[in-house]
Amino acid sequence: MKKIWTLLAPVLLVACIGGNDDPNDITDKFDGTRNIHESFERHSDGSISYHAIPWGGLEASVRDRNLPVDWSGYESITIEFAEPLKHSVQVKLSNKMRTFGRVGITKLRYYFDGQDASQVDYVAIQSSDSCTLEIKRVYLTPGTSAWETTKLWEGECSFGNWENGISIPASQFLEAQDGDQLEFIYQNDTSDPKVEYWQFKTIYGGTTTTLEGNADQLNEWGCASVGSSGVFRIHLTAKDVKELRKIGLYANGFYNIVTQVNLLKRGVSIEADTEVK
């Protein structure tokens, strides 16, 4: 059973700030911190030194005429750091989408991939510990691809507190290729009001080794934090494809309910002309 999923990028008008030549660069929009004990400086080249405290936040308001903006036509947001991260970071978009960046990386790219990016108010960069983050730039990348969807699994798996998971045999991945996406359709399990975060862990079947495609977004236990109910996707690497074809996949996590797992294969590229409002 196959269907075509297409990401079309709308044409948006741009209000350039500070003479930035890249209309999709939003570095200039970061103009405040979430905690009075934090501070930041903007340098002549546009880069930012952000003096963070644990789980504070450097924030960019991206509202247009005091209304949320529609970023549905974008593929991803990327944060480039001048130095390797000494502490992990979290990136949040309007409390709906979030991703994690591990220690040692200099570039964190967060694919929207099926998330609801139609009502974005702000972007926040948070550190897990006190430090200075040297941020070179933050920019959006327009979406330009169509994807063909093949269903791998369907049902209802409630992860609970890591109690349950999904196994998909190697035979299901025989057509997978480097650059394809693994897609989980899920909803947050809100049965426990004390739970305030949700996670996925994806490993090669019968091992403790996590997939390589989203390694930069995994925390120290190999888990990916996700936002509100929607879609979680991993861009597969050549190693991922080799291992999945050989031993399959096992996925579990923390308080998510998965109803479908798909393999997305890249189709025809679509010309895009998308700019930041």
Structure description:
It is a single chain. This protein is mainly beta and 277 residues long. Helix content is 4%, strand content 47%. The chain has 1 helix and 19 strands. The protein has one helix spanning 238-247; strands spanning 2-6, 30-33, 39-42, 48-52, 58-61, 74-81, 89-93, 97-101, 107-111, 122-127, 131-142, 145-158, 161-168, 181-188, 198-204, 224-226, 230-235, 249-254, 256-269. It has a 5-stranded antiparallel sheet with strand order 1-12-19-14-17, with no helix packed on it. Strands 2-5-10-7-8 form a 5-stranded antiparallel sheet, with no helix packed on it. Strands 3-4-11-6-9 form a 5-stranded antiparallel sheet, with no helix packed on it. Strand 7 and strand 8 (97-101) form a beta hairpin. The longest helix is centred in the last third of the chain and has 10 residues, at 238-247. The N and C termini lie far apart (38 Å). The model is unreliable at 1-19 and 268-273 (pLDDT under 50).
Strand order of the largest sheet: 1-12-19-14-17
- Number of E strands: 19
User: Which term fits the overall shape?
Assistant: globular
How widely separated are the two ends?
Answer: 38 Å
Mean pLDDT: 87
Helix count, DSSP H or I runs of 4 or more residues: 1
Helix coverage percent of residues? under 10%
- Stretches with pLDDT under 50, minimum 5 residues: 1-19, 268-273
Helix/strand class:
mainly beta
Radius of gyration computed on alpha carbons = 19 Å
Question: What fraction of the residues are assigned to beta strands by DSSP?
Answer: over 45%
Main pleated-sheet profile: 5 strands, antiparallel
